[in-house]
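pasting for ref
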Amino acid sequence: MDTQTELEAAAFRQLLKHFQTHTDVQNIELMNLADFCRNCLAKWYLAAAEEKGVAMDYDQAREYVYGMPYSEWKDKFQTKATAEQMAVFEAKQAAKK
């Protein structure tokens, strides 16, 4: 593994740790501010695994990103999105079309 890949991997691990520690930050907030969320990271991780021929499904990728099964994370930490959050999200999605 080259140095750049090692640095990128370390930064990614730190990003995951940050998201796993800051469970108060909701995915809708991430989507509205940064246009990506934990689920996006899981999809990117899964795509990378598939590209390398690593057997994995979306649930396994989400468990890696969330640090626990997604259903458990949702039960413990996910809150209902506010009407304002959903309006921002929907407006951003419409703007992409």
